[in-house]
Design goal:
By secondary structure, the chain is an alpha+beta fold. Helices cover about 45% and strands about 25% of the residues. It has five helices and six strands, in the order αββααβααβββ. Helix 4 (about 100-120) runs antiparallel to helix 5 (about 125-135).
Length: about 180
């Protein structure tokens, strides 16, 4: 029996196209679409793009100055539970580059925060934020906590820096988003 090359190649190309097209459609309609619609009209969110990995869902997110990061995180986790499932929800907060002064302020308190997190002495975090406000005039510092993360917001005039620190530190003890 002789196999015809042209029909075999066309069948293989068509099958591959249908498989890839079906996967792409499923990915955009059933997974990315619902997450994008959750954050589309959320107050405080300028833009967001979910990235779904094997073990985690990372939201590449740009926040407004007055965004409440804790509320945004909890809303996405609650409303996106069907898509997120048992995966870890992470935030990759995009900055606009105007936070150099806030980065310097953050670096002065980073050791105190890291020590409080490592020792699970979370009551030291609001105290560190108060010291920060006294040390630098014009800086507003706030912190919130839930069972998953510690949320820190630093504001100076029109600029803001939002930080999400997982309560269970990474294996190396480093926070990639700090």
């Amino acid at each position: 029996m002789k196999i015809r090359v042209l029909p075999a190649v066309l069948t293989a190309v068509l099958s591959a196209g249908l498989l890839v097209g079906g996967w792409y459609t499923y990915r955009n309609v059933a997974t990315l679409g619902p997450l994008e619609s959750i954050v589309a009209d959320m107050p405080g969110v300028s833009s967001a793009a979910p990235v779904i990995g094997r073990d985690s869902v990372t939201m590449e997110i740009t926040l407004d100055r007055d965004a409440n990061v804790k509320d945004i995180y909890e809303t996405i986790a609650r409303e996106g539970e069907s898509v997120i499932g048992g995966k870890e929800l992470k935030f990759d907060i995009q900055e606009d580059g105007k936070q150099q002064e806030l980065d310097k302020v953050w670096s002065t308190v980073l050791f105190d925060i890291a020590e409080a997190m490592e020792n699970r002495h979370y009551t030291a975090i609001p105290a560190a934020m108060s010291r920060l406000e006294k040390q630098f005039s014009g800086i507003e510092a706030s912190s919130e906590i839930d069972e998953v993360n510690v949320y820190i917001t630093l504001k100076n005039g029109e600029t803001a820096k939002h930080i999400v620190l997982p309560r269970t530190s990474e294996k190396l003890g480093v926070w990639p988003n700090a």
